[in-house]
Amino acid sequence: MIWFTVVLLLLGVVNASPFLHKHHSCENNQTTIRREWGQLSVAQRINYTDAVKCLARKPPRLPTKDYPGVRSRFDDFVATHINQTLKVHYSGLFLPWHRRFLHLWETALRDECGYTGYLPYWNWPLWADDLKKSPLFDCSSSSLSGDGEYNPGEQALAGGNVTIPRGSGGGCVPKGCGPFADFEVHLGPFSRNIVSLTELPEPKFDYNPRCLNRSLNHFVATHYTNTTLIDNLMAATNITQFQTAMDHWPARPDGVFGLHGGGHFSLGAAMQDLFASPQDPAFMLHHGMIDRLWTNWQAQDEKNRRYAVNGTTTILNPPWGQKVTLDTVMEFGVLDRPRRIREVMSPTAGGFCYTYT
Ligand SMILES: *[C@@H]1O[C@H](CO)[C@@H](O)[C@H](O)[C@H]1NC(C)=O
Ligand SMILES: *[C@@H]1O[C@H](CO)[C@@H](O)[C@H](O)[C@H]1NC(C)=O
Ligand SMILES: *[C@@H]1O[C@H](CO)[C@@H](O)[C@H](O)[C@H]1NC(C)=O
Ligand SMILES: *[C@@H]1O[C@H](CO)[C@@H](O)[C@H](O)[C@H]1NC(C)=O
Ligand SMILES: *[C@@H]1O[C@H](CO)[C@@H](O)[C@H](O)[C@H]1NC(C)=O
Ligand SMILES: *[C@@H]1O[C@H](CO)[C@@H](O)[C@H](O)[C@H]1NC(C)=O
Ligand SMILES: *[C@@H]1O[C@H](CO)[C@@H](O)[C@H](O)[C@H]1NC(C)=O
Ligand SMILES: *[C@@H]1O[C@H](CO)[C@@H](O)[C@H](O)[C@H]1NC(C)=O
Ligand SMILES: [Cu+2]
Fold it and tell me: Which range is the signal sequence, renumbered to this chain (predicted)?
């Protein structure tokens, strides 16, 4: 009887907590689960890549007249990302903007291409030791294709204190290598300069059809997406420290990438393109992992982390940048109406209703 009362009291306290109350906006909807690629069945993986290819066959909403490189619904996402690049990277908008972007992508796959699953993610350290043998990049019909053809001309990327040895590919994903072997990308490329962001290109939307160019990079995967770095990230005690571990640029003295850069530079030219990287079908799964880690980190301390933001609305947070607040408005072009940062701070509120395994 005493125990029963204690339990009831505890339940009362929990129910009255402002945190749970706020998160009740999701209560009438079943919380959906985003799973790791390796946790999906082969049929679920194929359903995902089929839906991605379906979006790449659908007509765009952006006018090709104004945006010549935009040839498909898939390209609407790429062009929107290109357009926002100088605001939503290495800035206070990085985490919130990409959270909404992923949701819009997942929704388009479901609503426009009949996909019945949810966004998968790529848990980097599970596969870092041998990307080529991973279910993500093993060239099987249930993968996201794999390495590019060996390009003897691919160089190491070097600058400042950072040198990244070349990867194992450097050319087109070859015939027979999974669902994106014949995939055509249309936009970019933009500079892949990894050190100096002092001379940034402007967004452009020219039509430049070419193959999906990959170079799996064992060095980057093992050095910049490993469990030590994830543990370090998750141990961050404030959002500034979290963002730094996730997303700092390598031009810092020890020349280390953030985990965000680590995933991008693990895969080769298409993913190393700061502007046009959503052209690689692995992009959304990489960002799924980033959003998952942020989600878990936020949930560890509701009071201090749920609404924590820091930085500006400009790439690399220059001193003159406008500081972000929860009322800062983010833009999504043809994909969505503008959203305040506040709206996206919880995966179970504001129209979101998802969790990660
Ligand atoms: C794959 O998608 C089809 C509909 O396109 C659906 O009927 C089927 O259940 C899906 N398979 C899995 C494993 O989700
Ligand atoms: C490289 O490292 C040295 C020593 O840590 C530092 O002084 C220098 O500023 C770094 N260079 C760059 C480009 O980060
Ligand atoms: C792939 O990208 C590399 C690096 O930008 C480039 O040198 C190479 O020409 C590209 N290969 C193809 C076939 O597009
Ligand atoms: C992860 O990488 C960092 C630096 O790149 C290194 O110091 C650390 O030992 C690595 N950890 C593991 C588990 O490989
Ligand atoms: C964030 O945490 C780091 C590491 O503990 C600390 O050095 C820094 O002062 C903190 N920043 C703020 C704004 O609390
Ligand atoms: C925001 O980040 C800057 C460094 O980029 C740091 O100096 C400042 O203390 C941070 N503020 C908060 C409230 O975290
Ligand atoms: C790019 O951003 C500008 C300014 O917000 C907007 O007018 C334009 O429609 C956007 N274009 C795309 C492709 O999103
Ligand atoms: C609940 O589902 C409805 C219909 O699918 C959707 O319109 C609404 O945004 C969802 N609400 C939340 C909080 O997820
Ligand atoms: Cu991005």
Answer: 1-16
Q: How many CA atoms are closer than 13 Å to the CA of 64, on its beta-carbon side?
A: 10
- Identify which ligand lies nearest to the alpha carbon of 120: 1
Confirm if 94 and 320 have CB atoms less than 8 A apart: no
| Domain presence at residue 324 | yes
How many structural domains comprise the chain? Answer: 1
Does ligand 3 have an atom closer than 6 angstroms to the CB of 215?
Answer: no
Domain with residue 177: its CATH number is 1.10.1280.10
- The whole-angstrom separation of Cα 282 and Cα 117 is 17
The minimum-distance atom of ligand 4 relative to the CA of 256 is: 5
How many Cα neighbours within 13 Å face the side chain of 32? 16
- Of the listed ligands, the closest to the CA of 110 is 1
Instruction: Indicate whether residue 171 lines ligand 3 (CB < 6 A).
Output: yes
Write down the mean pLDDT value for the chain: 90
The answer, yes or no, to whether residue 135 has pLDDT greater than 80, is yes
Q: Could you tell me the pLDDT band of residue 10, with boundaries at 50, 70 and 90?
A: very low
114 lies in some domain: yes
Residue range(s) defining the domain that contains residue 122: 14-356
Alpha-carbon torsion 220, 221, 225, 228, what sign? negative
**Nearest atom (ligand 2) to Cα of 250:** 14
Query: Residue 103's closest CA among 297, 291, 295?
Result: 291
Read off the tokens for 199.
Answer: 């001379």
Q: Where are the beta strands (DSSP E) in 82-160?
A: 157-159
| 5 located within any domain | no
Q: Note whether residue 81 is domain-resident.
A: yes
pLDDT confidence of residue 11: 36
Contact 343, 97 (CB under 8 A): no
Ligand 8 atom at minimum distance from 28 CA: 1
Q: Phi-psi bin for 160: left (phi > 0), alpha (psi -120 to 50), beta? A: left
The pLDDT value recorded for residue 201 is: 87
The residue whose CA has the least distance to atom 8 of ligand 4 is: 228
Pocket lining: 15 vs ligand 2, CB cutoff 6 Å:
no
**297 φ, ψ to 5°?**
-65, -45
pLDDT tens figures, 62-80: 999 999 999 999 999 999 9
CB of 304 shorter than 6 A to ligand 5 = no
